[in-house]
Amino acid sequence: MKIVSQTVTHIPQPTENHAEWLEKIGRVCYKSEDKITAGSAEKFLNMLVSNGHTSVLEHLYFTVMYGYGSLHSVYFRHDGDKVISGNVRTIYEAYKSNGRKIDIDIPTIIQLYSGSHIQMSDMIHSAETFHIVTDRATSHELVRHRTASISMESQRYCVYSKDKFGGEVTFIQPIGMIEGEFSQSEWKKICENTERSYFALLRGNKPEIARSVLPNSTKTELYMTCRLKDWKHFLDLRLSPKAAPQIRNIAEKIQIVLKEKYPEFSDNVYRNE
Ligand SMILES: Cc1cc2nc3c(=O)[nH]c(=O)nc-3n(C[C@H](O)[C@H](O)[C@H](O)COP(=O)(O)OP(=O)(O)OC[C@H]3O[C@@H](n4cnc5c(N)ncnc54)[C@H](O)[C@@H]3O)c2cc1C
Known about the structure:
4-stranded antiparallel beta sheet; two-stranded parallel sheet; 9 helices; 37% helix
């Protein structure tokens, strides 16, 4: 068994190689980043769509002028200098809605919209993505934020006895655990025991059954994308001392990045200290 600390890393929206950026995010579900090759992105993204796993497409945002013109048969009305933004899933579903039968795939959408994308920096049109390594209890709190787009390591597809996971289960060091030999050793003992049970269950059972014994402290890994207005709401709730220490630590790390980039995150996030 391995014990690691929680981490939060900012992953800026891409300015080039958009499909590859999205592929890397989608592959976290399967922890199959080792399968990335030149040209694998297009195949991978189309595979996600054919499997109905289109939520991954939500991480990539485009903003385009809302004027007269067309982008591959989608026409925009002339309406001053207004812009319209959406993620790749929204755009894909817009093509498919209203019974239209437009044959377009994800790589084509990415190619068309990345060429017309306008860099914005406001609460509505800008989105930011973070890579978060945390425990399964905290990931459950993160996924409660319904306006966020999240792609997360799956315990159905990831089999921790395999070499690529080091043949061991990884656990996250809990933040806020009472200092002292007893707490630490009890917690470690339980992690070791559950790892043993998990490996025992894997003999003859699918990972989706074996995972049932893994505890809340089990490490997971996810990408989380929100428009800025939704990050603000997230921070309002999760920077509060009422929030659990583990998710509060994530919120603090996200706030540091967003504060640096956008004035809106400087002082108006609720902190009851
Ligand atoms: C300190 C703390 C303790 C908590 N304890 C618990 C607990 O004990 N049990 C528990 O189950 N959860 C708990 N939660 C989770 C909480 O109930 C919310 O699920 C979570 O914080 C997401 O908040 P949200 O719904 O405002 O945000 P989001 O889901 O991100 O939604 C953002 C906004 O979109 C709008 N919205 C989204 N979906 C809908 C909808 N279907 N209908 C109407 N408006 C919508 C709302 O305006 C909402 O504020 C806790 C959260 C905190 C911060």
